[in-house]
Amino acid sequence: MARELVQIREATRNDAAEIARVHEEAWRSTYQGIIPHLHLEKIIVHRGPAWWARALRRPGSGLMVLTFDGKPQGYVSFGAARIASSGKTGEIFELYLAPTFQGMGFGKKLFLAAKAAMEAKGRKSLVVWALAENEAACAFYGRLGGTRSATAPEHYGHVTLNRVAFVWERVGRTAR
Question: What are phi and psi of 95, to 5 degrees?
Fold first, then answer.
């Protein structure tokens, strides 16, 4: 029986250590030189396998992994928007790939899978927050049809960065 080399599926408790690995690799690659070093290290250490195991037990939020040859190489977490005017707005909280899997269309596949899962739960609109200094993420969400709609400060000690909200007013309107 043949199996697909690349799959997207719901994460399980057994994925916690691999999700932590992807998180660490992606955050070091993405945020080195953007988020102050000590704060970046604290975030990475805090988000170890035990944190992800607890996250996988939390009801209400979705967490999917992209696997390559059975091993998680990316993840997307999503659910009801944390700040929304109605309960019909979904939010992608995080979408990250291991650095060697970036730039090959896998991020878009994860995004579309999370979007479809939220549509199935009745979400009519979608929001994603990204650090403005993360130019690659901002360009990615722009290419997918997200509209910049708000900014908010994000504090890391004495350093303040800006978060940008990308919004899709109708979930079904995503660039393919």
Answer: -145, 110
Q: What is the DSSP letter of 15?
A: G
Q: For the chain, what is the total number of helices (H) and then of strands (E)?
A: 5, 7
Q: Closest Cα partner for 95 from 38, 149, 27?
A: 27
Question: pLDDT tens, position by position, for the chain (176 residues)?
Answer: 557 899 999 999 999 999 999 999 999 999 999 999 999 999 999 999 999 999 999 886 699 999 999 999 999 999 989 886 667 899 999 999 999 999 999 999 999 999 999 999 999 899 999 999 999 999 999 999 999 999 999 999 999 999 999 999 876 555 44
**What is residue 86's three-state secondary structure?**
coil
Tokens found for residue 101: 């899997």
Widest CA span in the chain? 56
Q: If one looks up domain 6-123 in CATH, what number appears? A: 3.40.630.30
pTM value is 0.92
User: How far is residue 82 from each of residues 50, 59, 128, measured CA to CA in Å?
Assistant: 23, 15, 11
Please report, for the chain, the start and end positions of each structural domain, with discontinuous segments joined by +.
Answer: 6-123
Please state whether beta strands 89-97 and 125-131 pair in parallel, antiparallel, or not at all (unpaired).
Answer: parallel
